Amino acid sequence: xxxxxxxxxxxxxxxxxxxxxxxxxxxxxxxxxxxxxxxxxxxxxxxxxxxxxxxxxxxxxxxxxxxxxxxxxxxxxxxxxxxxxxxxxxxxxxxxxxxxxxxxxxxxxxxxxxxxxxxxxxxxxxxxxxxxxxxxxxxxxxxxxxxxxxxxxxxxxxxxxxxxxxxxxxxxxxxxxxxxxxxxxxxxxxxxxxxxxxxxxxxxxxxxxxxxxxx
Length: 215
Hints:
There is one protein chain. The protein is an all-alpha fold. It has helices at residues 2-8, 15-30, 35-53, 60-80, 84-100, 104-114, 120-126, 130-141, 148-166, 173-189, 195-211. The protein is built from eleven helices and no strands.
């Protein structure tokens, strides 16, 4: 659906873009920290080149619509890589741009997709409102009917929010403790689940960041 909508907005992928997208999804799923950024850069370069060659991108509005299409392809990458929050972030940005260009049908379609978010926590986290997201996640965590996997994913989301807040409050020891506790809980509850790999990669990144010397 996202590919079709992107094409309707004037952005049709080339074979090179589709190939890069497939490789990028695989890199994200595997947690390849070296290949992922390289492929994202390659994707952006190919997308910009494609945009410059579109025959109907002669006006600023044409290009703006095509750029929404690129945003939707990016969303499709995150969706395929099972990164829900990143997927929602791209959709929010695309929706905002569609409303700005008064693309009523496109905005309505994206509104429908955004309503499928799993929880209010993910809804707010996708908009960068980490503190609001944390409130909802903690509320959801009180649900005694949660499975271990659901509880593990909640703790993984909490870890992501705490880590995001630490970028602006790097010296906050309480945030660091909360992040560590949530990450350790995520690893335990996700034992044997696919998502445990993501939790482990996050733990490795956090550990590496603490070992690196600070200027």
